[in-house]
Structures are given as structure tokens and as C-alpha cells.
TrEMBL record:
This is precorrin-2 dehydrogenase. Pathway: Porphyrin-containing compound metabolism; siroheme biosynthesis; sirohydrochlorin from precorrin-2: step 1/1. Residues 117-138 form the Siroheme synthase central domain. NCBIfam families: cysG_Nterm. SUPFAM superfamilies: NAD(P)-binding Rossmann-fold domains, Siroheme synthase middle domains-like. InterPro entries: Met8-like, NAD(P)-bd_dom_sf, Sirohaem_synt_dimer_dom_sf, Sirohaem_synthase_central, Sirohaem_synthase_dimer_dom, Sirohaem_synthase_N. It catalyses: precorrin-2 + NAD(+) = sirohydrochlorin + NADH + 2 H(+). One of its GO terms (molecular function) is ferrochelatase activity. One of its GO terms (biological process) is siroheme biosynthetic process.
């Protein structure tokens, strides 16, 4: 498995099936601003609501060969294994990225469990060995890495810009961060003492500057 993070803004994506599993996949695609089409003869109330709101397109039909054309990414979440398999094989033939929610062998990509805090994304995969462990780890990591890590990341991103202007070589910047982002600083973050953590980084910038 080769992990990547994909931009899906306005990218045409299709979901086959209109049940509870399809809904989960639709929600994560919409959160990524994808252009989502659902192909299914019937859908749940929640999906119907999204369609009414204009959040996604609906082709009200069973899957037929050719329906996958024009999509960059396809998720098969019907309860009809034959339809899932047919669609996945067609998609693979056309180099369309495909996930079949309960058949890893037919997937060109699988979905990880996801923890998000602002710009921070932590994903967990078990190579399909135990999705239940992925879920358990998501819950544990969400407790461990709460909203403060998202706030800290926002601060770090601004500090990083300052560091880029202060230290001109990439090697110096790498060296700086390896020394500045210490266990001590991250312990302050864990205790939600963001101001103090930032102060430590600023102190390190001054020290590094006077050394060079
Ligand atoms: C991470 C997560 C993301 C998501 O779904 O978006 C995800 N499954 C989740 C949960 C979950 N799924 C299942 C259970 C019940 C326990 C169990 O069966 O073990 C639970 C646990 C629960 O829900 O409590 C059933 C299940 N899943 C797959 C099979 C087929 C098979 O293994 O052969 C079966 C049996 C179906 C059956 O028996 O009919 C296959 C896949 N599931 C994957 C992803 C991919 C590999 C991920 C990895 O590398 O670990 C892969 C390969 C394909 C894919 O879906 O991409 C999501 C975490 C949600 C969260 O964050 O809470
Ligand atoms: N629900 C779960 O917790 C769960 C967990 C793991 C795996 N799964 C598997 O995921 C699949 C989907 O689960 P679900 O709970 O969303 O199912 P569901 O029965 O609620 O929904 C199935 C959907 O597929 C649509 N469909 C059926 N044949 C189709 C076709 N030929 N073309 C297009 N759409 C078609 C139906 O109209 C329906 O909207 C099932 O195979 C299930 O075994 C479900």
C-alpha cells in the first residue's frame, strides 16, 4: 500500500448504492468538495435530503456497464456483489480509482480511519487486516490528539513562515526545527499551554539567529 492524500475539489466521483455505507462514503467525499454522483435505484432518507439540497447528483437506476465512464473515482457500496464486481472490473480496465467497501481484492485503494484537528489529519490503515483495530485506534488517537493540536498547528504554520524568512538555507531550517520542536515544547502543547510553547519556539529562533 502506498499512502497518498488526494485533492478532490470538483473532481467527478461516483458512489454505487444508496444505503448506510454509501452515506458514509458520500459524506467524506462531500467534505473533500468532490462533485458526487450517486447511482442507485433507491436511497435512504438522509441521502434523499442531500439530493434535495442539491449537494449531489442522482442517477436513479441500477448499475450498468458504462455508468462509470467520466468519473475519476468510484466507490462501490451496493449490497449486490455481482454489480460491485462488474463495476470495479470495468473501472479498473479504464484506470478509474476504485474502492469496493467490503472486497479488498477489488480495490485499487482502501479507506483509512481518520482523525482530523484543523489542518492536521492522522490516518490509520491495517492493510485490511483489522478495520476494527483501525476504528479503535481512531478513537484512542482522537482522545490523545484533541483540538489543541489543530490550534498549535495553525501557530506552527505561521512560525514556519517566519523561520523561512529568517533562515535562508533549507538545511538550516531543517536543523532549526529538529532542535526547536522538542518533547518539552510538545508537553506544553499537551497541557494546552500554547502561548508558552510559542514563546519557546520564539526563544529558539532568537538563539539560532545569534549563533549564525
Ligand atoms: C477504516 C474504515 C474506513 C471506512 O470504512 O471509511 C474501514 N473499515 C472501517 C470499519 C469496519 N469495517 C468493517 C467492520 C466490522 C469488523 C470487521 O469485519 O472486521 C468495521 C469496524 C466497525 O465499523 O466497528 C467491515 C469490513 N471492512 C472490510 C471488510 C471486508 C474484508 O475485510 O474482507 C469488512 C467485512 C464485511 C463483512 O463481514 O461483510 C474492508 C475494508 N474496510 C476498510 C476500511 C478497508 C481497510 C482498512 C484497513 O486498512 O484497516 C477495507 C479493506 C476496504 C475499504 O472499505 O476501503 C472503517 C473505520 C471506521 C472508523 O473510523 O470508525
Ligand atoms: N451496514 C454495515 O454496517 C456494513 C458493514 C460492512 C459491510 N457492509 C456491506 O456493505 C454493503 C452495503 O451496505 P449497506 O448497509 O449500505 O446496504 P443497504 O442494503 O442499506 O443498501 C444497499 C444499496 O445498494 C443499492 N443497490 C442494490 N443493487 C444495486 C445495483 N445493481 N446498482 C446500484 N445500486 C444498487 C440499493 O438500492 C441500496 O440503496 C453490503 O454489501 C454490506 O454487506 C455493510
Amino acid at each position: 500500500m502506498y499512502p497518498i492524500n488526494m485533492r478532490l475539489d470538483n473532481v467527478p466521483c461516483a458512489v454505487l448504492g444508496g444505503g448506510s455505507i454509501a452515506l458514509q462514503k458520500i459524506q467524506s467525499l462531500l467534505a473533500a468538495s468532490a462533485d458526487v454522483t450517486i447511482i442507485a435505484p433507491d436511497v435512504t432518507k438522509d441521502i434523499e435530503q442531500l439530493i434535495t439540497e442539491g449537494a449531489l447528483h442522482w442517477r436513479r437506476k441500477k448499475y450498468e456497464i458504462g455508468d462509470e465512464k467520466g468519473f475519476t473515482l468510484l466507490i462501490c457500496a451496493t449490497d449486490d456483489m455481482t454489480a460491485n464486481q462488474l463495476a470495479a472490473e470495468e473501472a479498473q480496465r479504464q484506470h478509474i480509482l476504485v474502492n469496493v467497501c467490503d472486497t479488498p481484492a477489488l480495490c485499487t485503494f482502501t479507506l483509512p480511519a481518520v482523525v482530523r484537528q484543523g489542518e492536521l489529519t492522522i490516518t490509520i490503515s491495517t492493510n485490511g487486516a483489522s478495520p476494527a483495530l483501525a476504528r479503535w485506534l481512531r478513537i484512542a488517537l482522537t482522545k490523545e490528539y484533541g483540538p489543541v493540536y489543530g490550534h498549535w498547528l495553525t501557530r506552527l504554520s505561521l512560525l514556519r513562515k517566519e523561520v523561512q524568512q529568517t533562515f535562508l538555507s533549507s538545511r538550516d531550517r531543517q536543523n532549526f526545527w529538529q532542535h526547536a520542536l522538542t518533547d518539552e515544547v510538545m508537553e506544553l502543547v499537551r497541557q494546552e499551554k500554547i502561548e508558552e510553547a510559542e514563546e519557546q519556539i520564539r526563544h529558539a529562533i532568537s538563539s539560532f539567529r545569534s549563533q549564525s
